[in-house]
Amino acid sequence: MHKGIGFWLAKRRLRDPEKRAVIFGDEVLTYRQLADAADRVAAVLAARGIGSGDAVAYIGENSPQFLQVMFGTAQLGAVFVPVNTRLAPPEMRHVLVDSQAKALVLDAEFLDRAMPGVEAGRIAHVIVTGAGLPEHPGLARLIAEASSGHTPVDVELDHPAAIIYTSGTTGRPKGAVLSHGNLTWVALNCIVDYDVVSSDVSLMISPLFHVASLGMGALPVVLKGATLVLEKGFEPGRALAQIQRHGVTMLSGVPTTYQMMADHPDWASTDLSTLRKLTCGGSAVPTRILNAYEERGLSFSQGYGMTETSPGATSLSPTMTREKQGSVGLPHFFTDVRVTDEHGQPVPPGTVGEIEVAGPNVFLGYHGLPEATAAAFTEDGWFRSGDLGYLDDDGYLYIADRLKDMIISGGENIYPAEVENLISDIEGISGVAVVGVPDDRWGEVPWAVVTLKEGAEVDTELVRSRLDGLVARYKLPKNVVVVEDLPRTASGKIRKADLRARFTDG
Fold first, then answer.
1. Which SS3 state, helix, strand or coil, does residue 434 take?
2. With the C-alpha atoms ordered 56, 124, 232, 407, is the resulting torsion angle positive or negative?
3. Which of 250, 355, 425, 454 is the most buried (most CB within 10 A)?
């Protein structure tokens, strides 16, 4: 019995064989075609010895192949590992080695960046999307030549389906293991709370390798039998054109993407009459964006979550956007949220404490890290988010602060420790703190605040050049500020809240 996401396309092929499943440029795939291709991907992988529990990594932009490989991998009971295409070679190496991937499917343009990981890890098979290269077979040809048969596999909802890497406070990304049940329940949460229907046409402008785009964007649409319009990358004018061209009803993004669309010259002339659902994550939607969209008769669903919750934990209905402005909403339908004190006891409404999440969408644990997994859960099984917040009298959640000091820049998560570790190795730097500073376009951007050894000279360009190629470019500090001393607590911990306040106020 296959109870995981791998059987979804076979079910859709029976129910809606000729319905449009994916639109990608001028390419249109029906559910029959998408399911047939996923079957053949499963056969291709099985012929290469990929089976239950094996990891298959994928590095590529949004395309039908992403979905074909994901669902084909799931059919085998294997584990899908989507890799952020913006990672630098050392970061990709860590993901490919740590996940113990046995096969890698990738767009040719990422091959050079991936090779250090291929050479250092357990990857036995490298497949390139499209036509392929002389040294690596092309996925398109393999699919065309493959049969659709493979040995049936028993898959339960609690079996691993994906490993999605999330940066940690120590600076070393951890692989969050999401089960088939996690991905199923987060899709159901979205169907219920965002009212996804089979007639929806959803435009995907965010990368599918992000857990939000995958778990709350693509999967609910496929489960419901609606249509996905995939964009390889985000360009605001093209996104507006696609909405009008395809009669898009659903759109997911981050504040930055919504702002760029509203600022585009085509904004006023684009027909947005089919749009009825806008979801926004990453950070709260600024008032100026709310105003711009409300002038066009559009409101947002906002929310809160993290990779470990697949990722949705709460959602704020468009009807409550103004009444509960600043809130991230109520717990998703099949999810529970509580706020606790330092002893793990629930606190009264209005009291700030740590946000904890429970439900079938909460991950299995961190890949290969039993101690980190144990530390992430309370004794009674709630996931400890590490974020501070409070519930109001109506049960709506408000975020008060981030214990982890995470920076969210254009929807990308940046954990300061990762960047700080690299900056501290630069000659002449005696101390460093990386903090998020508000930015009109990206929401916030990382700044490095440093102290120097006597006689040393360090500037922004030096720091950026030393880090370039070691981390994704969105993690590079946009500014480097030299100070005499970093503010510290009595125990010596840097007071980042003080730094954020100082540079936010100018």
1. strand
2. positive
3. 355
CA dihedral 28, 30, 34, 37 (to 10 degrees): -80
Cis bond before residue 89 (omega within 30° of 0): no
Which residue in 263, 503, 483 sits closest to 407, CA to CA?
A: 503
- Which residues does 294 contact at the CB level (< 8 Å), separation at least 6? none
Residue whose pair of structure tokens reads 């959640």 in the numeric block: 397
Rg (CA), the chain: 23
Q: What angle do CA 244, 277, 12 make, to 5 degrees?
A: 85
Q: What is the pTM of this model?
A: 0.89
Whole-number Cα distances in Å, 493 to 372, 453, 489: 22, 20, 5
**Taking a C-beta distance cutoff of 8 angstroms, is the pair 458, 483 a contact?**
no
Instruction: With a cut of 70, list the residues of the chain below it in pLDDT.
Output: 167-171, 401-404, 489-493, 505-506
Pull the structure tokens for residue 279.
């979801």
- For β-strands 312-316 and 300-305, DSSP reports them as antiparallel
Q: What is the pLDDT of residues 40-90, one digit of tens each?
A: 999 999 999 999 999 999 999 999 999 999 999 999 999 999 999 999 999
Which residue matches tokens 């950026």?
464
Q: Report the pLDDT value the prediction gives residue 288, as an integer from 0 to 100.
A: 83
Helices and strands in the chain, H and E counts: 16, 27
Length of the chain: 506
Angle of helix 255-262 versus helix 287-294 axis, rounded to 10: 50
Q: Are 211 and 237 in contact (CB under 8 A)?
A: no
DSSP 394-436: TS-EEEEEETT--EEETTEEE-HHHHHHHHTTSTTEEEEEEEE
CA distance 210 to 208: 5
Preceding peptide of 207 cis, ω within 30°: no
Give me the pLDDT at residue 204, please: 97
Contacts of 111 (CB under 8 A, 6+ apart): 126, 128, 133, 136
Which structure tokens are listed for 485? Answer: 């001393």
Cα 462 from Cα 459, distance rounded (Å): 5
Tell me the pLDDT tens digit for each residue of 300-315: 999 999 999 999 999 9
Q: Which tokens hold the place of 349?
A: 């409404």
Q: Coil, strand, or helix at residue 39? A: helix
pLDDT at 170: 56
The token duo for 120 is 């250092």
All residues at 6 or more sequence positions from 414 whose CB lies less than 8 Å from its CB, including other chains: 167, 406, 407, 408, 434, 436, 446, 474, 475
Tokens standing for 436?
């998020």
Q: How far apart are CA 259 and CA 395, in angstroms?
A: 29
Asked if residue 178 lies in contact with residue 364, where contact means CB atoms within 8 angstroms, the answer is yes
Specify the residue for token string 């890290």.
Answer: 369
